[in-house]
Design goal:
CATH superfamily: Vaccinia Virus protein VP39
Structural class: alpha/beta
Number of domains: 1
Strand order of the largest sheet: 3-2-1-4-5-7-6
CATH class: Alpha Beta
Low-confidence stretches: none
Number of helices: 11
Oligomer: single chain
CATH topology: Rossmann fold
Largest sheet: 7 strands, mixed
């Protein structure tokens, strides 16, 4: 097993290389956050309501699509990431969309952005499955206002088809990722007085099977979860009816949520550790 320093070094190197391969001027943040095939972000956007003037911390911001999107809605956004390359890309993305953001470079388990106020929203997008969850929560919760909200989305562990996909996608992901187990979700939700969880991508996963089987697109060469949003116009006619069936199915059989791809958590009333 890698020690912590080696893990962080490998994660940073991987994401620096990823950032260097992207032309951020081609990223449409509204598309990435409002497309029909971006259900997690559409759900989070509705849950957060009006963001104008709100202080938002984007943890593990990556290329900055979500944080820059929040800034276009009037939020005061701070981006933090382990990868300096990703932060530079996010800064360029913000400039491209004519908004200002603050940035802080560092691993969230050990470093925090210097702030003199608490945040109204902490957004942890596709990040908890990369980090030590208890250490991360210990760092984040003191930065959240008592009436603030932490929102997150991450992959869950249990669907065997997704595990096959993740194996095939090894070249475009880091080896230290750990999709969330039930116990991981409890680690997060137990730190809040109120926590709601919602699952996404059950039957809608068949789109990714189509990408592989019908279009011969290898998941080790393309990030399906990015491409399905970029190609929302193509996939929308298939996605929308499947999403409707997913909603009905999960309402009637909620235990099937653990076979979905992703889980969204909306957490309020933080409980600080003594």
């Amino acid at each position: 097993m890698k020690d912590s320093n080696q893990r962080l070094h490998d994660e940073e190197s991987f994401h620096d290389e990823w950032a260097s391969s992207v032309d951020v001027t081609k990223i449409d943040v509204r598309q990435m956050c409002e497309a029909c095939t971006a259900p997690e972000m559409r759900y989070i956007r509705r849950a957060l309501g009006d963001l104008k003037g709100k202080r938002v911390l984007d943890v593990g911001c990556g290329l900055g699509e979500a944080g820059v999107y929040f800034a276009t809605l009037g939020a005061q956004v701070t981006l933090t990431d382990l990868s300096a390359g990703m932060l530079r890309a996010a800064e360029r993305l913000a400039t491209h969309h004519d908004v200002c953001v603050l940035t802080h470079h560092g691993a969230i388990e050990t470093l925090m952005p210097p702030v003199d106020e608490l945040f109204d929203v902490i957004y942890v997008g596709n990040t908890f499955h990369h980090v030590d969850i208890p250490k991360t929560l210990d760092r984040l919760l003191p930065l959240l206002r008592p009436d603030g909200v932490l929102v997150s989305w991450d992959p869950v562990l249990y669907n065997p088809l997704i595990q096959i996909y993740r194996h095939l996608a090894n070249p475009v992901r880091t080896v230290d990722e750990h999709p969330l187990r039930v116990s991981d979700v409890r680690l997060i939700t137990d730190r809040f007085g109120q926590a709601d969880k919602t699952f996404f991508w059950l039957l809608t996963q068949s789109i990714f099977i189509g990408m592989f089987v019908l279009q011969w697109r290898h998941p080790g060469k393309e990030r399906y979860w990015k491409k399905v949003i970029e190609e929302a116009d193509r996939w929308g006619p298939i996605y929308r009816p499947l999403e409707f069936v997913d909603r009905i199915t999960l309402r009637c059989l909620p235990f099937l949520g653990w076979l979905c791809w992703n889980i969204v958590l909306i957490c309020r009333s933080p409980r600080l550790q003594k």
